[in-house]
Design a protein that fits this description.
Largest sheet of chain B: 6 strands, mixed
Order of helices and strands of chain B: EHEHEHEHEEEEEEEEEEEHHH
Radius of gyration of chain B: 17 Å
Strand order of the largest sheet of chain A: 2-3-1-4-5-6
Helix content of chain A: 25-40%
Low-confidence stretches of chain B: none
Strand content of chain A: 15-25%
Structural class of chain A: alpha/beta
Low-confidence stretches of chain A: none
Largest interface: A-B, 32 and 32 residues
Mean pLDDT of chain A: 91
Radius of gyration of chain A: 22 Å
Distance between the termini of chain B: 37 Å
Helix content of chain B: 25-40%
Number of strands of chain A: 14
Number of helices of chain B: 7
Oligomer: heterodimer
Distance between the termini of chain A: 30 Å
Strand content of chain B: 25-35%
Order of helices and strands of chain A: HHHEHEHEHEHHEHEEEHHEEHEHEHEHEH
């Protein structure tokens, strides 16, 4: 049966790609599951694929890309399903797309980026060999809901795993708590670098209560938001000792990128790779689209930072500051993938992170809201209605040593990328 | 005379989920631009009765369920003081969870009836189904010299029903409102305003921010103090953008 499915599925995806009906990503999977409900489980088993789920509000795509780079450069064959992994049909489709007509996958590792609300449903069908959990921050509350309820659902789901290896962020209390009191093999990553620590809590720190007893946590220091060195004064729950706190090389700037790198290194080491092999591979890393991606446009350097919630926006701004960036464009849309609610721009720490000598412009569907937000932080800004003209105008005023930093949420980032590269993605 | 207002932000660590601190920023800045000095006092679990009584203006935001439970326990201890403050006409802006606390009770999705502060004649029920989410516009006829459209974003599971002795903040033009049936949103009682508006509410409704500031000055200095007019062009642009999205004219 499965041979027939692979043949049909491959043919279907070939035809739909050829006829430009989209990349054919979901149809083959739908049909496969109609013909054989156990298709995914059978294929995974037959090919002895190691499955990895990556979850977290921020950093899923970058972490997957880091792992892909490390493994590929070390001749381990890997497939990534970044879009559509939230449904079993999406997983089925990606298995078909990555196989040949005879159903041979020729891959050893499969990575699935799983949305906050999809982990439970997907885990009922597939118990992953590895679960990497990065962080939980407020994000699109109108769509994902509140983070406490997500954390509770995850805890319940992970509690049912039997053989999964967990790779968890020790510095995020709700993430660290996922692994406690379980008999699963668990690795923790977290930071120790003193120069990155701050004693002050930043606005928008979400998980400041003990995930076990709801007492207010004590933080010895913070890295950003609610990530830090924490303990509970009531039930004695505390940050687990990380198995890894630093690495010899980081391919991306910013504190948040250190966490993503550590997660990918811990996983690669669990697969048996050595530090030297990992470092060598990471030196050839190229960012995922829109994640600190550098594009040359009209002879000027442009760097795009996907910034989709208060914490990712704060961390992008902090990184731009460290890179001494002075020319910034913020783009805010409110389309379906972005969430309809733009309230979160008031949780961004512009007051702390903007420098007086920055040249700032805004654009996007909700440019008026952004411009208003910046007015209330006493920041003069230019408003552009036409994205392409706006970017051209800003770049026209830069000299060739300067970089334009663009912070954009999801659909705005895709639009900008299309202008800069002249082609569509996804 | 140098004017000064003490703004109380109730439970900023626990009740600040949906960008509600934008309301504090707007109140501070609109005072600052007019030469009115402000001090923002964070009111939390450790705060005393004296802390509460020192406030000229109050803002309380919304929160997640766990945080709301913790705050509810603490609010019981502060109930009488808060009641005195609200009854004496100290203006306040109570958003979402902050709004619900002021009523008689909150009935959860599994029929658990939790008593609230009982300061306002209203109650809230959470039927457990769909949350009411989206851009919203309402018309207020009470607070300003002419009927005024208030614009924002709502996201709430609770449905609040007002008693006969209390006025809504406005009639729904587009969106859901406090509950599906009444086509009304929020509440006004003395100088306190309760609402489900996130967005946050004040940046795109500067007249409401100015209303709260005027009332606070009036109560504190016992006379009407004219507020200097500010340039609200950017505020107006942001309002028009959402109005256009909602298909209404303002």
């Amino acid at each position: 049966m499965n041979n027939l499915i692979f043949f049909l599925g491959k043919a279907l995806s070939f035809v739909s790609t050829r006829l430009n009906l989209g990349n054919g990503s979901t149809w083959p999977g739908h049909i496969a599951l109609k013909l054989n409900k156990k298709f995914v489980q059978e294929v995974l088993k037959k090919n002895k694929l190691k499955t990895v789920f990556v979850v977290g509000t921020n950093g899923k795509t970058t972490t997957s890309k880091l792992i892909e780079t490390i493994l590929e450069k070390n001749n381990i064959k890997i497939m990534i399903n970044s879009s559509g992994a939230n449904l079993l049909s999406g997983v089925a489709s990606s298995l078909i797309i990555n196989s040949d007509f005879l159903g041979n996958l020729k891959k050893e590792v499969a990575i699935f980026e799983v949305d906050e609300n999809a982990l439970s449903v997907l885990s009922e069908k597939i118990e992953p060999d590895y679960l990497i959990a990065l962080n939980l921050f407020r994000d699109q509350l109108d769509r994902y809901g509140e983070i406490d309820s997500i954390a509770k659902k995850w805890k319940k789901t992970i509690g049912k795993y039997k053989n999964t290896t967990l790779i968890l962020n020790a510095d995020d209390p709700q993430i660290a708590f996922l692994g406690l009191k379980l008999k699963l093999k668990t690795y923790y990553f977290g930071l120790s670098e003193k120069s990155l620590q701050t004693k002050l809590i930043q606005h928008g720190a979400d998980s400041i209560l003990c995930p076990n007893c709801m007492t207010k946590l004590n933080f010895e220091s913070y890295y950003f938001s609610h990530l830090g060195i924490w303990d509970c004064p009531n039930c004695q729950l505390k940050r687990p000792k990380p198995d890894m706190t630093s690495f010899s090389y980081y391919p991306l700037s910013g504190t948040y990128a250190i966490y993503n790198t550590l997660a990918s290194v811990v996983f690669s080491k669990a697969l048996g790779l050595e530090n030297a092999q990992i470092e060598k591979a990471l030196k050839e890393f190229k960012p995922a689209f829109g994640r600190q991606e550098e594009i040359i446009y009209k002879n000027r350097k442009v760097k795009i930072f996907l910034s989709k919630n208060p914490i990712s926006f704060n961390e992008s701004l902090d990184t731009v500051n460290k890179l001494n960036g002075k020319n910034l464009l913020f783009a805010l849309n409110d389309q379906i993938p972005d969430g309809l609610d733009v309230s979160w721009i008031w949780d961004i720490d512009f007051e702390r992170l903007l420098e007086k000598d920055m040249n700032i412009s805004v654009c996007g569907d909700r440019k008026e809201d952004l411009s208003l937000r910046l007015k209330y932080t006493d920041c003069f800004n230019h408003v552009f209605t036409d994205l392409e003209l706006g970017i051209t105008k800003i770049l026209g005023n830069l000299d060739d040593s300067e970089t334009l930093y663009i912070l954009a949420n999801y659909s705005a980032m895709l639009e900008i990328r299309k202008i800069l590269t002249g082609k569509k993605i996804l | 005379m140098k004017l000064k207002l003490t703004i109380g932000w109730l439970y900023p660590e626990l009740m600040s989920t949906y960008g509600d601190r934008g309301n504090i920023i707007v109140l501070q800045k609109r005072c600052h631009w007019r030469g009115i000095e402000t001090e923002v006092k964070n009111i939390g679990i450790d705060s005393t009765k004296q802390d509460l009584l020192s406030l000229d203006l109050i803002m309380m935001g919304g929160a997640q369920d766990t945080q709301q439970e913790i705050v509810a326990k603490d609010l019981i201890k502060k109930k009488e003081t808060l009641k005195t403050i609200i009854e004496s006409g100290i203006p306040g802006l109570y958003i979402c969870g902050g709004f619900q606390y002021l009523g008689e009770y909150y009935k959860t999705a599994n029929d658990n009836k939790l008593p609230q502060l009982g300061i306002l004649d209203m109650y809230t029920e959470n039927p457990g189904g769909e949350r009411l989410i989206g851009n919203i516009a309402i018309e207020n006829i009470d607070l300003f010299t002419k009927p005024t459209t208030i614009i924002g974003f709502e996201n709430h599971g609770g449905r609040t029903i007002l008693g006969s002795s209390i006025k809504p903040l406005g009639k729904v033009i587009k969106g859901f409102g406090s509950n599906e049936a009444s086509k009304e949103e929020g509440a006004i009682y003395k100088n306190s305003i309760g609402t489900y508006f996130h967005g946050p509410i004040l940046p795109k409704n500067p007249m409401l921010a100015d209303y709260l500031i005027s009332k606070a000055l009036q109560v504190k200095y016992k006379k009407i103090i004219e507020l200097k007019t500010l340039d609200d062009t950017l505020e107006e642009n942001a309002r028009l953008q959402v109005a256009k999205k909602l298909g209404i004219t303002i």
